[in-house]
Every structure is written in structure tokens, then in C-alpha cells.
Specification:
single chain; 237 residues; alpha+beta; seven-stranded mixed sheet; two-stranded antiparallel ribbon; 7 helices; 22% strand
Length: 237
Amino acid sequence: MPCGEELSGKGFYYSAHFHRIPQICANLYRRQVQTAKLDGILKMRLILASLSKARADLLCAAGYSFDQKPSGIDERPIQRGESPADYVQSLAEDKARKVAADHPEAFTLAADTVLVCGSHITGKPSDMEDAVRMLCKLTGETHRLLTGICIIPPSSNGTAKALTGVDVAFVTLRAMTEDRIRSHVQAAKPLEYAGAYALQKQGVILIERMEGDPNTVIGLPMTLTERLLRQAGYVNP
């Protein structure tokens, strides 16, 4: 029977495609769901709660698109009895919470890095002389660099449960004279970095040995960061 032929003169038409309507509807529904999922992925927004060029470069190299928003948080001193790992994780979460409160629709990523030599935590140098002093203490010694990561998923008010983690790397600096250290500080001007050196700013020439992820030393361990992003539900478009 031809498609659309009238039956019994009563105005009823038979179509050879009527039996396919359920399948057509199901396929249409699947396409709509797939489109919605794709739209959701494309609309996912990632914010790096830092103006750090080094961290931004690592995210870019891994193929992520993101915005940068500084947290403006003043880093507090470590509390009595607080471990370096808990301390750096807490600082990262403070930064993430601050930015997430202003951008609750986004995934917010924050990080913080501290250097620990013995039982002493070393932050960023206050000036060039402080940088020289720090490196004079670190030269020839092995120390730890801890980077804490925090990710806040989207929520209605930026108070979603945080996903956090800490990665550790061990670094031994070469034995150097004070004159050699002063020359390095003048050339690298490493005032933005814990311990007054950075792999990406000539600091690699100071290092004798390193154990762990170099990205942890730079300030954003990507293996840990990407695992936490997946757990938070972020899909990189």
C-alpha cells in the first residue's frame, strides 16, 4: 500500500512510517539529552583563585580554559600544633571559599605552597635581603615543599563541600657561597616564591636533587589537581 493512501473513503491515512514513531521519539530524546549534556559541559566555568602566572601556565599546558580571580586573602601564621599539611590545605581552602562566594556558579580552584626545612615553615621573602637570608639557610640542605589544593564545586551560595589534597616534594639545594646566592637573587628576583627560588625562574640551577612532582615545587601538582577536578564533577570541554 502506498504511503498515505486513503482507506475506505473515510479520510484515514495509513503511513508505512507509523510503526517507527516510538523509535523516532526515542532517538530525538537521546539527542536532546546528549545536547543538554554537551551544553552543560561547555557552560562549565573554572576559576583559578590566583594571579600566579606559573599556576596559570600549568593549567594552560594541560588544556584547561579558566578565568583568574585573586582571593585577596592575607595568609595567616601557622597555629600551635597545626601540621604543615593541615596549614597549607587550610590556606588553599580559605582562598577558594573567598572566590567561590563571589562566583558560586563556577568550579573554583585554589592552591597554596609552603616550604618546610626541619620544623620551620618558610614563606615568601619580604625583600631581596630576606631572599638571600632564606637561601643561605637552605643551601646544601634538604627541605620539603608542600602544595595544598582546594576545589569548590558550583552551588547556590558558594558553600559546597570542598575537595582538598596535599602533595609533597623533597628538594636539596646545592652548596653555594653567599656571593653566588646574591647573584642569583639579583638575577631571578624570586620574591613571589616560598623559599626564594622557583624552578621556572632560574631556580633549577640551584637544585642538586629533587624527589616528587616538579609541578608541586612550581605550585600546582597537576596529577592531584586533575583527580580532584574529576571528583568534583568538572569535565574539561
